[in-house]
């Protein structure tokens, strides 16, 4: 493991809190790309702002693009279109990807652009001190929901599926094997791939809701479904299908515009 | 040394010609055209080598997007209609780091939405071009009427410390020429450049002369790995996918891109970025006429400079010795050039603009020994020559 980390990271140790899920995701990602054996020059890791956005930047020794809060997917879209050969991975948080950046998330899914979005859902805005997020379970405590969260959370997998994503999965950081396998599938999948990773934030969320790291595993398992039907939050791969990919469509348009015959956009 | 001279000659002159020879069929052929300012701007972008446009519809800039949605794929480029202006400005920054010359176009409301990303582009020193076709605000204001109200937003709209390059065309021809210049400056200085048009220029149909491609100079950015160095603290720029393992961040960083919040590191970065512009001598362009014998001068820019110039000619016919200055570059503001242009006899300076008095504040800051009169026109209307003449005559008479 130490070897692997040396191979892919520029700085160690990382500065996440003890018990934070970010370090696990970093480990899993390094293993996934090591197993994939793609050209490391082809990876572009884009992130927004938040603790989870620090997973690639500055640690990963790949091209890293640490952008603005909520905008990682929009930056990634421009880079991917300008250079279709890049393997673009977006690391984002629940606040980053589903709160301020929610609009970019659904539109990228709708376009089915070939990006891999790894969204770390820790149920809160970790970096700014644990405020309520659009993913915070109803009634739970955060620094801006001291009486319990009055709102209902998003089911992000359902959201991006409905928007048109062609690979959708949800795992927790306590399932590293499944997560690594899923990351590899998502990176190889041609189209918009989305993995929601349930991840503990013991410092800001766990503390306020009396969750020890041990409790977190059960908490993730026992959490009721945001849909409010009493069922537990499902984990696994929910969507894996083929659909026209956005960059391919743009290239077909180029051919059409340049009068190359026999190409039609379908 | 010889090698370097040869190399820069090759870069700046030979490669674009070769490119044009290959691509000639897709470029608008040299010649005379009657087109909208927005179209001239869009075609200028193609001449400059723009290969990606991302935007969101807004009057009076929409024609730029519509035109490029057809033209860019023909020219092997990409057109993206994004979900909003925030995404549009983010996408062109991403595209620029992936190696493209990229542009967006908008008007006041969209420009406001872009400001956080523009601030990121300043800090990461990303070459992009932002075209702003100004309309009358605040807010939705008179959406289809022209104005010049973004004079300060173009300079100070984004948060943080930076210097800006803002160009102001006043004809369809200049919309073409200055779009090319905007790309060239952004590539040379590795910074965002704003082309501040107004709705009148954007929606005006006028003659556009497209010159022979070999007479148009096209600049390319200084890339990581290029053998020659550049002056003015300009750093080579990496490109995603080329194996540089880039660290690009809007957080305070060292030259390598490594995050570092140390006061001395960040202040050095900001001073270096600002000095690229404040020490440059080739950014500011200004037009001046009839200043030798002038007792008064009318200053303007953009569309309002046209009636202003008409007023100068009419007043001179009446024997009133008025000079004319037009800012072609709004920022950096031409402090020193303006001071040098003032002769001792000039005791009245009129600043004509389509806002409640913006550039006039900068003129007041720079010119100390003349009376400065703000000639403002609001309501989405281009000031008439007569109204300017009246203002000038009233002032000059009360003095005599
Ligand atoms: C435009 C803008 N608004 C607010 C912030 C402050 N901010 C920084 S990180 C953050 C929340 C991050 O939460 P999340 O995306 O869930 O990441 P986490 O830290 O939980 O991993 C906020 C609100 C900002 N940087 N930019
Ligand atoms: S605050 Fe929470 S999310 Fe941020 S590093 Fe600490 S545990 Fe992780
Ligand atoms: Mg979070």
Structural topology:
The complex is a heterodimer of chains A (266) and B (400).
Chain A: H1 2-8, H2 22-36, E1 43-47, E2 63-66, H3 72-82, E3 87-93, H4 94-100, H5 102-111, E4 115-121, E5 124-125, E6 131-132, H6 156-163, E7 167-172, H7 176-188, E8 193-198, H8 202-208, H9 213-222, E9 236-240, H10 246-257
Parallel strand pairs in A: 1-2, 1-3, 3-4, 4-8, 7-8
Antiparallel strand pairs in A: 5-6, 7-9
Helix pairs in contact in A: 2-7, 4-5, 5-6
Chain B: H1 2-23, E1 31-36, H2 37-48, E2 52-55, H3 62-74, E3 78-81, H4 85-97, E4 102-106, H5 108-124, E5 128-136, E6 142-146, H6 153-156, E7 165-167, H7 172-189, E8 192-198, H8 199-202, E9 205-210, E10 247-249, H9 263-278, E11 286-289, E12 296-300, H10 305-317, E13 322-327, E14 329-331, H11 335-341, E15 348-353, H12 359-366, E16 371-376, H13 385-399
Parallel strand pairs in B: 2-3, 2-4, 4-5, 5-8, 7-8, 12-13, 12-15, 15-16
Antiparallel strand pairs in B: 1-9, 5-6, 7-14, 11-13
The complex binds thiamine diphosphate (TPP), iron/sulfur cluster (SF4) and magnesium ion.
The site of thiamine diphosphate has 17 residues of chain A, from helix 4 and strand 5.
* Small molecules in complex: thiamine diphosphate, iron/sulfur cluster, magnesium ion
Q: Characterize the largest beta sheet of chain B: strand count, sense, and whether it forms a barrel.
A: 8 strands, mixed
Order of helices and strands of chain A: HHEEHEHHEEEHEHEHHEH
Number of strands of chain B: 16
The overall pLDDT average of chain B reads 92
Name the helix and strand elements of chain B from N-terminus to C-terminus, one letter apiece: HEHEHEHEHEEHEHEHEEHEEHEEHEHEH
**Number of distinct helices of chain A:** 10
The named CATH superfamily of the largest domain in chain B: Thiamin diphosphate (ThDP)-binding fold, Pyr/PP domains
Any guess at the CATH architecture of the largest domain in chain B? 3-Layer(aba) Sandwich
Q: What structural class should be given to the helix and strand makeup of chain A?
A: alpha/beta
Number of strand segments of chain A = 9
What percent of residues of chain A adopt helix (DSSP H or I)?
A: 25-40%
Topology-level CATH name of the largest domain in chain B: Rossmann fold
Q: Which class of secondary structure composition applies to the elements of chain B?
A: alpha/beta
Give start-end ranges of low-pLDDT stretches of chain A: none
Strand order in space, largest sheet of chain A: 2-1-3-4-8-7-9
| C-alpha-based Rg of chain B, rounded | 22 Å
Overall tally of domains of chain B: 2
Largest sheet of chain A: 7 strands, mixed
């Amino acid at each position: 493991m130490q070897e692997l980390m040396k191979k892919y990271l520029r700085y160690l140790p990382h500065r996440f809190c003890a018990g934070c899920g970010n370090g696990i995701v970093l480990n899993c990602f390094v293993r996934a790309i090591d197993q994939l054996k793609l050209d490391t020059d082809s990876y572009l890791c884009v992130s927004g702002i938040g603790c989870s956005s620090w997973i690639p930047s500055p640690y990963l020794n790949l091209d890293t693009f640490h952008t603005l809060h909520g905008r990682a997917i929009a930056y990634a879209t421009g880079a991917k279109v300008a250079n279709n050969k890049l393997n673009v991975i977006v690391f984002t948080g629940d606040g980053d990807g589903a709160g301020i950046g929610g609009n970019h998330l659904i539109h990228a899914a709708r376009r089915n652009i070939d990006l891999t979005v790894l969204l770390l859902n820790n149920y809160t805005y970790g970096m700014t001190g644990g405020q309520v997020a659009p993913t915070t379970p109803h009634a739970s405590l955060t620094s801006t929901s001291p009486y319990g969260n009055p709102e209902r959370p998003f089911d992000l997998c359902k959201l991006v599926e409905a928007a048109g994503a062609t690979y959708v999965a949800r795992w927790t950081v306590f399932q590293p094997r499944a997560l690594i396998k899923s990351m590899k599938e998502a990176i190889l999948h041609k189209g918009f791939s989305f993995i929601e990773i349930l991840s503990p934030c013991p410092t800001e969320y766990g503390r306020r809701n009396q969750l020890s790291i041990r409790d977190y595993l059960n908490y993730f398992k026992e959490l009721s479904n945001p849909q409010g039907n009493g069922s537990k939050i499902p984990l696994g791969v929910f969507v894996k299908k083929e659909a026209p990919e956005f960059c391919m469509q743009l290239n077909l348009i180029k051919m059409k515009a340049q009068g190359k015959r026999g190409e039609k956009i379908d | 040394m010889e090698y370097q001279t040869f190399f820069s000659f090759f870069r700046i002159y030979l490669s674009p010609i070769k490119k044009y020879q290959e691509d000639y069929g897709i470029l608008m052929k040299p010649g005379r055209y009657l087109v909208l300012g927005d179209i001239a701007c869009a075609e200028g972008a193609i001449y400059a080598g723009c290969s990606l446009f991302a935007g969101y519809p807004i009057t009076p800039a929409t024609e730029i997007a519509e035109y490029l949605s057809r033209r860019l794929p023909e020219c092997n480029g990409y057109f993206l209609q994004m979900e909003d202006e925030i995404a549009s400005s983010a996408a062109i920054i991403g595209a620029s780091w992936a190696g493209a010359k990229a542009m967006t176009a908008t008007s006041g409301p969209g420009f406001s939405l872009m400001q956080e990303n523009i601030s990121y582009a300043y800090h990461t020193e990303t070459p992009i071009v932002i075209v702003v076709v100004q309309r009358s605000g605040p807010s939705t204001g008179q959406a289809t009427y022209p104005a010049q109200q973004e004079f300060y937003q173009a300079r100070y709209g984004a948060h943080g410390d930076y210097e800006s390059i803002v160009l102001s065309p006043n004809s369809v021809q200049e919309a073409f020429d200055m779009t090319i210049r905007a790309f060239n400056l952004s590539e040379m200085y590795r910074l965002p450049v704003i082309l501040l048009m107004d709705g009148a220029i954007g929606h005006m149909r006028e003659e556009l002369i497209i010159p022979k491609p070999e007479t148009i100079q096209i600049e390319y950015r200084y890339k990581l790995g290029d053998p020659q160095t550049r002056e003015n603290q300009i750093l080579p720029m990496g490109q995603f996918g080329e194996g540089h393992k880039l660290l690009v961040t809007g957080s305070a960083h060292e030259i390598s891109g490594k995050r570092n919040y140390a006061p001395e590191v960040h202040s050095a970065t900001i001073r270096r970025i600002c000095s690229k512009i404040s020490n440059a001598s080739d950014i500011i362009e200004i037009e001046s006429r009839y200043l030798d014998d002038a007792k008064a001068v009318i200053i303007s820019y953009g569309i309002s400079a046209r009636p202003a110039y008409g007023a100068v000619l009419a007043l001179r016919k009446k024997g009133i010795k008025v000079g004319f200055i037009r800012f072609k570059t709004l920022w950096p503001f031409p402090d020193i050039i303006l001071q040098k242009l003032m002769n001792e006899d000039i005791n009245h300076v009129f600043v004509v603009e389509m806002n409640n008095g913006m550039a006039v504040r900068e003129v007041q800051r720079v010119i100390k020994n003349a009376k400065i009169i703000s000639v403002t026109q609001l309501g989405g209307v281009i000031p008439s020559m007569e109204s300017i003449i009246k203002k000038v005559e009233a002032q000059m008479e009360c003095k005599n």
